[in-house]
């Protein structure tokens, strides 16, 4: 009986510790894992540790540590079904952070019980250092994880766009903006806003000059000459209001075909108005077009002119 109690104590202690660590890893990286799977894995982890503790006593210290960490890494990869290097790196980072947080907390608690001893005080300082270090690493990782999540959400709204006009076709990236409610009075549909730099690739030289004139004109009212150009040259004037702007003007041209794709699958094929903006988008290097809110509600190949 005297030999059973230490084993049971080690099993229970390691089970609780492993469960807490695995629970936090599941929460951060593997939310699809079920609760009973975490309990089962914690039991396997704790039993493996106890077996390692009792069967490797005769090995050299370095060999024991290598064997222990190899067993831990193998169990983690097996349980979470890790197949990529990036996921393995993320999982191990989180695992080590929570491991050191728990180890530092336990060490600090145990040393506080015998704080009158000089050695215990030194151990407490070490534990505090481990706590601060692992907390800092974990905080930095959490921030990076949030940034990656925001970028992933943004990528979901990024699409491949093909625009054809007057025999010219361009391919670029577009961002679906549900807040883009600018509507053309000509088509009755939302306006795709394209940067002036990208629009040059599908504009004729004379159209580029007209676009520049409209964008540099500071007057709020529309002259009859501007309206006339809509019928003579197919250059439309779009009026809009936004924060800090009232009755602002934006040149517009009709696109013969606008195709929206995702992973090479055609989602929308339509005609529509292109609004040309002189302002650069926030993520200029990521996309060149802001798709309107109604783009996915349009019928394929619908003739709107």
Describe this structure in words.
This protein has 305 residues and is α+β, with helices and mostly antiparallel strands. Helices cover 52% and strands 20% of the residues. It is built from eight helices and seven strands. It has a six-stranded mixed β-barrel with strand order 1-2-7-3-6-5. A hairpin with a 2-residue loop joins strand 4 and strand 5. It comes from Anaerobutyricum soehngenii. Keywords: Membrane, Transmembrane, Transmembrane helix. This is Sigma-E processing peptidase SpoIIGA.
Characteristic terms for this protein:
alpha+beta, 2 domains, six-stranded mixed β-barrel, 8 helices, 7 strands, 20% strand, Sigma-E processing peptidase SpoIIGA
Please provide a brief summary of the model.
InterPro entries: SpoIIGA. Pfam families: Peptidase_U4. By secondary structure, the protein is an alpha+beta fold.
